[in-house]
Design brief:
Length: 391
């Protein structure tokens, strides 16, 4: 399944000019050109629009800024900026069983240039009859309007994910929106956390394995993530890459198994040690990983016996099968290939967390410092972001 993603980055503006003007005496600026006024970074478009009105208002002397000027600035600023556009304006969401073809012309005779999968998002560029011209990811073309839902903010929010990306070496997630509150958990640089609330000024509430907590906005970058269309070329490249990775994984596992077998035949004792990985199947991965339940969780660790964090645990388990994985739960969302059904050995990705599926709706994972490596059921105890398969 396609895993292309479109990220929308939202920034906030500041009407610093209006605030500065509203706090300044009118006499101080009555004869000053607007270009020389200390408007603290207000947009030039707003400055031009306001110049005439502000000069007219300044001609009315008063001890301080008049309410008339305040109203003028407020009204003109809104007019200059326009009504705030929704983050989801002109977004269309595919609502189909599997995918809808994106064509190079508005009609069934058009050539297929890509696929827009169910719940994937596209920006509507134009309308031609009962067809929409869309852009989604690297694909631009036409889809029939009956297969997508447009300007439905509720649906767009449902199928998208609001993400806070960590931009510091180690980020503390706190129990309350204050630096004096307890640390709920720690998250490394570039981890992507699901945002659950943004109502507290200066703080964002996010989801991690320990629960929901707050991070300072100074250390995260927020965006909106959609799944987007896949071009024909991208689909071909993805399928080829997945096949190559499956082949490489099988070969690596065979080499790892042969190496272990050779070590045993040489007379090396296995007393007091865990069992070596067996065949190159997901079930073997799940069985091997399960041996370490009860061992400690250590932030930044990669030892299956002395302690590992969530991604370190998954990385170390797969290393025993000759597979190299990144030490990052977010990066693991891109390893192997994506699937929709869970099988033993699959890597299950959550917000700021990762685990291995062992079957029977159960995962094994390095959970928290308090609980260590353990089983958890059901596997969807928290929203699943991705399911990745190596074997």
């Amino acid at each position: 399944m396609n895993k292309n993603r479109r990220v929308l980055r939202i920034t906030a503006g500041c009407l610093a000019a209006a605030m500065t003007l509203c706090n300044a005496p009118s006499a101080a600026f009555a004869d000053m050109p607007l270009s020389d006024m200390p408007i603290a970074g207000a947009p030039a478009m707003m400055s031009i629009a306001l110049e005439k009105e502000i000069k007219n208002t300044f001609s009315i002397a008063s001890a301080g800024i008049s309410q008339n000027l305040a109203d003028c600035v407020s009204t003109a600023a809104v007019q200059a900026a326009g009504e705030p556009e929704s983050e989801y304006a002109d977004i269309a969401i595919a609502q189909v069983d599997n995918y809808v073809n994106v064509r190079d012309a508005a009609g069934e005779e058009g050539n297929v240039v890509g696929k827009l999968y169910n719940n994937s998002a596209a920006t509507v560029e134009a309308t031609e009859g009962d067809w929409y011209k869309i852009t989604s990811g690297n694909v631009t073309g036409y889809v029939k309007s009956e297969f997508v839902v447009r300007d439905n903010e509720e649906l767009a929010r449902k199928v998208s994910r609001r993400v806070a990306t960590v931009e510091t070496e180690t980020l503390f997630v706190r129990t309350d929106p204050t630096t004096e509150s307890d640390v709920l958990g720690m998250v490394p640089d570039q981890e992507e956390l699901t945002v659950t609330d943004e109502s507290v000024n200066g703080w964002t509430k996010v989801s991690i394995e320990e629960g929901e907590g707050y991070v300072s906005n100074d250390y995260v970058k927020k965006s909106i993530e959609f799944v987007t269309a896949e071009s024909k070329e991208e689909e071909e490249a993805r399928l080829a890459k997945e096949e190559a990775e499956r082949k490489a994984a099988a070969e690596a596992a065979e080499r790892a198994a042969a190496s272990k077998s050779k070590g045993k035949s040489s007379g090396a004792s296995s007393s007091g040690k865990v069992s070596s990985p067996g065949s190159s199947t997901g079930s073997a991965v799940a069985s091997y990983a399960s041996q370490f339940v009860g061992n400690p969780y250590v932030y930044g660790g990669t030892s299956l016996t002395n302690g590992a964090d969530c991604s370190g645990f998954v990385m170390a388990v797969y290393a025993a099968f000759g597979i190299g994985l990144p030490h990052s739960s977010s990066a693991m969302c891109g390893v192997g290939y994506g699937v929709s059904d869970m099988q033993p050995g699959d890597i299950i990705c959550y917000s700021g967390h990762v685990a291995i599926y062992v079957g029977n709706n159960t995962i094994v994972h390095a959970s928290t410092p308090e609980s260590g490596i353990k089983y958890t059921s059901p596997a969807n105890y928290k929203p699943i972001i991705a399911i990745r398969r190596i074997f």
